[in-house]
Design goal:
This is Glycosyl hydrolase family 13 catalytic domain-containing protein. Residues 5-223 form the Glycosyl hydrolase family 13 catalytic domain. Keywords: Metal-binding, Signal. There is one protein chain. The strands form 4 sheets. A 6-stranded antiparallel β-sheet has the order 6-7-8-13-10-11. A 3-stranded parallel β-sheet has the order 1-2-3, with no helix packed on it. The relative contact order is 0.08. Helix content is 41%, strand content 17%. It has helices at 2-33, 37-54, 69-79, 92-96, 108-120, 125-137, 156-159, 163-175, 211-225, 311-316, and strands spanning 58-61, 82-85, 104-105, 145-146, 179-180, 233-238, 242-247, 250-255, 261-265, 277-280, 288-290, 296-300, 306-310.
Amino acid sequence: MSNVRSITGMILTKLNIVDYLIYQILTKITPMLLYFHDHREELKKWIKWVIDEFDIDGIRIDTVPHVKREFWKEYTDAAGCYAVGEALNGDPHFLASYQGPLPAMLNYHAFFASRDLFEKGYSMYTLRDVVNTDNEVFPDPTVLGTFVDNHDKARFLSYHSDQKNYQNLLVFNFFLQGIPIVYYGTEQSFNGGDDPWNRETLWGNMDTESEMYKFVTNMVNARKQFKVWEHPHIERYVNQDIYAFSRGDVLIATTNVHTSFGVDITYLPDSYKEGDILCNVLSTGNDCITVTNGSLNVHFDDGEPKVYVPQARLVKE
């Protein structure tokens, strides 16, 4: 056993050295080379070839602050496809400064603010602030990459094991304006900590009958069926404990409290008519409500998130 540990240690040490050298190349040598015209042109020709050769729809560009903004405009123009940049920074103004040189950025502003809220029990008005700030600061918040976990940060469940809070966090970010990115293992409730523990093996752990797998599947199906990306993010109700918004015919309600309570939402999508029945696609039971006197009574039993869709359309489509 000691030999195995010793060999593993040697391999890891060598990998770390390679890792370090690659880091040095990317952060120090590459930016320097980009001052030279020939190197810039080769990189642009290379990315165009990659996109064309493999019919790629979009790319993620890591650590974009290490290279000057003007190059990213040239690079993404050459790529000719959607590109989302990464900068591990929660300041929306800093992130927004890269949208233009790049088509989009990962929305670390929403990531940090929403994770803190559902971990620490902050006011749900925080989500209103996130949306309003993104709308004010970013040239186009509808194409930002939204997410709750990734390989750079400890998984949410590694330090906050509340499954209901995690589900609310997922629902908010999945239906928030932007393009949702689901990190593998979310559908299995993986709870690895900081890198490398957040890179758990999926093989042997894949359960398509698990509650979370079905939960994520239902979110994906609702988003696709009702094409929420074609509709604006409209706030419908907010207080200390609830944040509700709509995307077209879909009404989303999130909470960070675990008591039984209800609220009446009167500011409804125009498509909702008196007597319409809305059903929560995330419910494993019969969570359906009816538009009565121009209002919907949304009742929470134990902090569960809601994604209500018209029952008639759900059945028909």
